[in-house]
């Protein structure tokens, strides 16, 4: 299960993620959500703003390359535990 896939907005200005998002013509949050979905994690990003909810759902028209997935797999998590939880397989 994806926990805090958007890092509570803490990674929106990360230069590596910004550059990658630009290449995919997506936002950093879209990139992070798609990473989680592409890893087959259950992912439910939180937002109370209708425009963000729509943006968060617009992630199914691209695939992240293996090279970029490897970069995203190693993004420092700082104080966010999303990768720790996400690395546990879902037994649902």
From TrEMBL:
<dbReference type="InterPro" id="IPR018170">
    <property type="entry name" value="Aldo/ket_reductase_CS"/>
</dbReference>
<dbReference type="InterPro" id="IPR036812">
    <property type="entry name" value="NAD(P)_OxRdtase_dom_sf"/>
</dbReference>
<dbReference type="InterPro" id="IPR020471">
    <property type="entry name" value="AKR"/>
</dbReference>
<dbReference type="Pfam" id="PF00248">
    <property type="entry name" value="Aldo_ket_red"/>
</dbReference>
<feature type="domain" description="NADP-dependent oxidoreductase">
    <location>
        <begin position="13"/>
        <end position="74"/>
    </location>
</feature>
<protein>
    <recommendedName>
        <fullName>NADP-dependent oxidoreductase domain-containing protein</fullName>
    </recommendedName>
</protein>
<dbReference type="InterPro" id="IPR023210">
    <property type="entry name" value="NADP_OxRdtase_dom"/>
</dbReference>
<dbReference type="GO" id="GO:0016491">
    <property type="term" value="F:oxidoreductase activity"/>
</dbReference>
């Amino acid at each position: 299960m994806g926990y805090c896939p958007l890092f509570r907005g803490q990674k929106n200005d990360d230069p590596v993620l910004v550059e990658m998002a630009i290449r995919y013509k997506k936002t950093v949050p879209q990139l992070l959500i798609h990473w989680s979905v592409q890893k087959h994690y259950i992912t439910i990003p939180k937002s109370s703003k209708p425009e963000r909810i729509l943006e968060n759902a617009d992630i199914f028209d691209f695939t992240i390359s293996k090279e970029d997935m490897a970069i995203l797999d190693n993004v420092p998590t700082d104080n966010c535990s999303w990768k720790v939880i996400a690395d546990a397989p879902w037994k649902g």
